[in-house]
Amino acid sequence: MGAMRARGGEPGPASKADRPEPILQEALLGLLRGHAPPANASPDVLDACLDRYECGGYLHHAWSGAGRPASLPEAWREALARAHRRTLLDNLAALAQFRDLGPRLAEAGVPFLLLKGAAYLGDLYDDPGARRLTDIDLLVRRSDAGRLARRLSRDGFRG
């Protein structure tokens, strides 16, 4: 059986230059542990850091769910809200694309299993903006993979 990606792709390895400063890494760890970070970072730097670690949606959800967003410095509060919004919109777009894909799989007579993030997004997370989906993973029989790949490529999907 082989896995196919309906959209997106894995980000490439980050270079050392792409890594946030250690103080931002420590601030993220603090946020995960429930500690408010210092207020000394620009919005662009915070956005890049949250994007790199794909945790802004989760942190926004966690701090909002605990009723504590007001205890965050404004720059962090706004960066987490932006990350959550982006994650939510991207996830909804990916799921809408999967909704487009389902009938194509049925028409082609290809059984499949939905894997990983998209498979448990609704079961494990009560907020679809809390976990970032980078793609939709499907498991199909090896014997169906080539035919399905050609069909999806013809229909504009990439993988």
Kindly list the characteristics that best describe this protein.
159 residues; mainly alpha; 3-stranded antiparallel sheet; 3 strands; elongated; disordered N terminus
Structural overview:
The protein is elongated. Helix 2 packs parallel to helix 4 and helix 3 crosses helix 4. The chain has one domain. The protein is 56% helix and 8% strand. The N terminus is likely disordered. By secondary structure, the chain is mainly alpha-helical. Strands 1-3-2 form a three-stranded antiparallel beta sheet.
With strands numbered from the N-terminus, the spatial order across the biggest sheet is 1-3-2
- Overall pLDDT, averaged? 85
Give the distance, in angstroms, between the N- and C-terminal Cα atoms: 16 Å
Number of helices: 6
Taken from the alpha-carbon principal axes, the silhouette is elongated
Radius of gyration: 19 Å
Q: Which stretches of 5+ consecutive residues score pLDDT under 50?
A: 1-14
Strands, count: 3
What is the H/E string? EHHHHEHEH
Strand content: 5-15%
Number of domains: 1
Oligomeric form: single chain
What can be said about the biggest beta sheet? 3 strands, antiparallel
As a percent range, the share of helical residues equals 55-70%
Report the structural category.
Answer: mainly alpha
